[in-house]
Design a protein that fits this description.
This protein is mainly α. 63% of the residues lie in helices and 0% in strands. The chain is globular.
Length: 71
């Protein structure tokens, strides 16, 4: 679900004002970081290969989104 929403988002709707000069992280980046950190901490003792695989897919989708947003 999370991966599909990141893959299917229209990156142009996320970029509001490129010239704002703000030094804060984009809200999508921050939400991804908070989610990824939470999942990693909550599952630290389980060694779940399925979670690691899903987190890798989400990481790849997020990387692709950031690349699209840079254009």
């Amino acid at each position: 679900m999370h991966v599909e929403s990141v893959r299917n988002v229209d990156e142009h709707t996320l970029v509001s004002d490129r010239g704002s000069g703000g030094l804060h992280p984009h809200y999508v980046t921050r939400r991804y970081a908070e989610f990824a950190t939470s999942m990693t901490i909550l599952n630290a003792d389980y060694g779940d290969g399925q979670l690691e695989q899903n987190m890798q897919r989400l990481r790849t989708a997020m990387d692709e989104l950031l690349r699209r947003m840079m254009r």
